[in-house]
Amino acid sequence: MKITILGAGPGGYVAAIRAAQLGAEVTVIEESEVGGACLNRGCIPTKTLIASAEVLHKVKNSQNYGLELNGSVSPNIYKIVERKNKVVDIQVKGIRGLFKSWGVKLIEGRGTIEGAGKIRVAMKDGSNEDIESGKIIIATGSKPAGIPGFTFDGTRILSSDHAINPSTIPQSLIIIGAGVIGCEFAFIYKEFGADVTMVEMLPHAVSGEDDEISLLLERELKKNKITLLANTGVERAVVSGEGTSVQLTDGRTLEAEKVLVSVGRSVNSTDLGLENAGVKTGRKGEIIVDSHMRTNVEGIYAVGDVTGGIMLAHLASKEGTVAAENAMGGNAEVNYDVIPSAIFTSPEIGSVGLRERQVVEKGLKYKVGRSQFRALGKAHAMGEIAGMFKIISDEVTDKILGAHIIGPHASDLVHEIAVAMEKGLTVKDIARTIHAHPTLSEGIMEAAEDVHGSAIHCPKKEGKKMAPETAGPV
Ligand code: NAI
After folding, report:
1. Is residue 344 within 6 Å of ligand 1 at its C-beta?
2. Which of 438-441's residues contact partners 24+ apart within 8 Å by CB, and which partners?
3. Domains of the chain, with CATH numbers?
4. Could you tell me the distance, in angstroms and rounded to a whole number, from the CA of residue 448 to the centre of ligand 1?
5. 307-316 confidence digits (pLDDT tens)
């Protein structure tokens, strides 16, 4: 079976390798670099910048750990970006190596669908190459969305693509949109020395998260002297010699050296020749697919951001494996109920499943258990005690409906709950499992115990009675 994949991001490259593992003859067409936005302009670059910011933060606060700093520490943005580029480069080479090892053919150019099973590639040297393919997987991703009145120029008005490659740290930065990208960059730029103001039209930062998580993050933004102007929209930006002024909808004007616009991402579905094959798209240009990643056209699949759903690299990868398996005759499906997510703010956020307000909207009977990082010896030893664990369970079945963690290593911790949810385990199953001491994972056990009022390191709560069977062995 010949399978051709448009795009080598986390959706496309993973689909390519899975298809090759299953014996397909695979060609990947990529117009930029393998790894896509995630590796070259998103997840990995930001995590590398965050690693530098975290070391800087620790060194600046070294006296809290009994260490004396005989000298000063300051960010060298040239070297920080150089390190980021090296990390990206290693991963790019890794993917290219995997393609070689699995016999995946990489064509560097821009592919357009000419009809069912037919793709034309505009090569970088100006020539064209025509490809016939039994199946096609579209994995062309997304790009930063703009807003009227703010034209990206890469100098004063930045998208996240620009913000990962700073040549200097601005004295002041206005971030439009306090979502995932906005909040991650707020902590990075603040740590590197910029004065950061965020403008968010909704009432809260990271408003897709559970409300308690948003509030706790807002407290940390405040502690870090990052200003959040919530319930505030923007009209336009005016760039002058010295900086940029941003006119807000409430009539105020903010001034800063630079502006970062992070108001979401738009799908890359134009000029792909979708109309030539009759592939259906939605209102925002997203390719419409089912949970098997099939489009309306037989033999054409789509995965990842271009399908307009939840824009997460790991979901794109899962969809990529599902599309590849189905293209090879399988019957795989994505479980959209259990998608862990990780936000690399300071502290981190890890969540999976329903937010409490969604549980309320669904009219489910539920219980909530909470525990605090400051109750954990390990968190104190690390000097990172801000944060909480929250588990929401179905009152009738005791199954986990959602879990929300904000605190150090939340992005890793959340996966214990994801496995439990995937396997339909109960809160009691988690509570009864011995968790090693001293670890941060103990907080998950404690939150699970707290659902039934049996947490050891939580003060007594009036009116919350422990069910005897939750404390005893199975
Ligand atoms: P987002 O949807 O998370 O946040 C955009 C924010 O901008 C929202 O809070 C929205 O209310 C606000 N906004 C929109 N228009 C506005 C305006 N005119 N004025 C003021 N505020 C406005 O989108 P974001 O942060 O750009 O991220 C894009 C995608 O990338 C998301 O789907 C996200 O999940 C994904 N992503 C995930 C990461 C992770 O998992 N760690 C990291 C980075 C991105």
Report:
1. yes
2. 438/376, 438/377, 438/378, 438/381, 439/378, 440/373, 440/376, 440/378, 440/379, 440/407, 440/408, 440/409, 440/413, 441/413, 441/416
3. 2-143+266-327 (3.50.50.60), 157-263 (3.50.50.60), 341-471 (3.30.390.30)
4. 31
5. 999 999 999 9
Give the model's confidence band at 472: pLDDT under 50 very low, under 70 low, under 90 confident, else very high: very low
435 a catalytic residue = no
Residue 40 in tokens: 């070259």
Q: How many CB atoms are located within 10 Å of the residue 293 CB?
A: 31
Mutate to test the pocket of ligand 1, among 44, 157, 181 (most ligand atoms within 8 A of CB): 181
pLDDT digits (tens, 9 = 90+) for 59-118: 999 999 999 999 999 999 999 999 999 999 999 999 999 999 999 999 999 999 998 899
What's the rounded Cα separation, in Å, for the pair 401 and 355? Answer: 8
Question: Is the CB of residue 308 below 6 angstroms from any atom belonging to ligand 1?
Answer: no
CA distance 117 to 134: 6
Both structure tokens of 430: 């988690």
- The separation between CA 390 and the C-alpha centre of its own chain, rounded to angstroms, equals 20
Side chain identity at 389, as an amino acid letter? F
Question: CB of 313 within 8 A of CB of 43?
Answer: yes
Q: Is 190 in the pocket of ligand 1 (CB under 6 A)?
A: no
Please indicate whether residue 38, judged by its CB atom, sits closer than 6 Å to ligand 1: no
Residue nearest to atom 43 of ligand 1 (CA): 181
Q: pLDDT tens across 186-222, in order?
A: 999 999 999 999 999 999 999 999 999 999 999 999 9
Alpha carbon dihedral 427, 432, 438, 440, in 10-degree steps, equals -10
